[in-house]
Write a structure and sequence with these properties.
Layout lengths: L9 E4 L4 E5 L6 H4 L5 E7 L3 E3 L4 E6 L5 E5 L5 E5 L12 E3 L6 E2 L4 E5 L1 H7 L5 E5 L8 E3 L2 E3 L4 E5 L1
Antiparallel strand pairs: 1-14, 2-3, 2-13, 3-11, 4-10, 5-6, 5-9, 6-7, 7-11, 8-10, 12-14
Length: 156
């Protein structure tokens, strides 16, 4: 009856080729206990990380190991490349856009040297997090092998 009050389903796309797994299986309590927010994780197999949604680059950490994209409305998605990668001090990461840039889902954000990260960081696993500030009632997740730009979450 009040269909105009229903929120449309928002798609979050994979920022990288790889294997999508549960967030709970990440070997880092901040992510596995969902202290940073809910989502999934990806074991990446390619070196380009892209925007998972349309929006504005709201944050790129100075070490380029994590970034967030905020939609025009009420969704913010963070991509955290690897575990304990902040300790790499930016080595192995190349920023391709700047904070404040408008991006479309699939636009390249960060290029990485996966072999370097695999050698020098705790893990290459990449949590994809819906921020706590987002207006979210429910998240449907898809698991398995994905290509960049495949839908990995539907946010209600």
């Amino acid at each position: 009856m009040f269909g105009f009050l229903k929120r449309k389903v928002r798609e979050v796309k994979s920022p990288v080729d790889g294997q999508v797994i549960t967030l709970e299986s990440v070997d880092d309590e901040v992510f596995s206990q969902k202290m940073a927010g809910d989502g999934v994780a990806i074991i990446p197999v390619s070196n380009i990380f892209s925007a998972p949604i349309d929006g504005v680059v709201s944050k790129i950490f100075s070490t380029n190991h994590a970034y967030s994209i905020k939609s025009k409305k009420d969704l913010e998605v963070m991509v955290h490349i690897g575990l304990d990668t902040v300790s790499l001090e930016g080595k192995g990461f190349e920023r391709l856009v700047q904070e404040g840039d408008s991006v479309k889902s699939g636009d390249d954000i960060i290029r990485v040297d996966l072999n370097y990260i695999r050698e020098h960081a705790k893990d290459i696993i990449t949590p994809i997090i819906i921020s706590d500030e987002s207006d979210v009632r429910d998240i449907d997740t898809m698991y398995g092998v994905v290509k960049s730009k495949d839908v990995i979450m539907e946010v209600h």
